[in-house]
Design brief:
The protein has 5 helices and no strands. The radius of gyration is 21 Å and the shape is elongated. The two termini are 30 Å apart. By secondary structure, the protein is mainly alpha-helical. It comes from Streptomyces pyxinae.
Length: 150
């Protein structure tokens, strides 16, 4: 719940920022001199890229959350069996052991989105966020009936 609230607040702040920067950019373009028009157009690029990035990430999170809800309803969410250090961080050896099992499970059933979802969680637990994201993208694609990698 805390992560969802943080994401919503951050997204709202970004949207306000995009509107403010976009407004200033349009005002610069409205001045009509070649320099202000060029700066205004350049300033519009920042909110455009930011809005696309926010939209793409929000879409990804919503899709991943739908998969998590479906997997939870089936009773297939991965159980947190990781050992933790006294500070609360995941023990690296424990995460590696769980990862090895999840990887073997996924290799045995490469077309099963559930395996890819659990592998994504294992990657995240092992602090490999880029691979976790790619595994989750594959789970989303497989669940949607698209070939992996689409």
């Amino acid at each position: 719940m805390r992560a969802k609230l943080s994401y919503a607040v951050t997204a709202a702040v970004l949207v306000v920022y995009f509107v403010l920067v976009g407004g200033r950019a349009v005002a610069l373009i409205g001045l009509g001199t070649p320099v202000t028009v060029a700066i205004g157009i350049a300033a519009l690029v920042i909110p455009a890229i930011g809005a696309w990035f926010l939209w793409a990430n929000t879409r990804f999170v919503l899709r991943a959350n739908r998969l998590a809800a479906e997997l939870e309803a089936e009773g297939g969410l991965p159980v947190d069996e990781l050992e933790r250090t006294p500070s609360g961080r995941v023990d690296r050896d424990s995460a590696d052991a769980v990862f090895a099992r999840r990887r073997a499970e996924t290799e045995a059933a490469p077309g099963d989105w559930r395996c890819w979802f659990r592998l994504a969680v294992a990657y995240q637990d092992a602090r490999d966020t880029p691979r976790a994201r790619e595994a989750m993208k594959r789970a989303i694609a497989l669940r949607a009936g698209r070939p992996a990698g689409s």
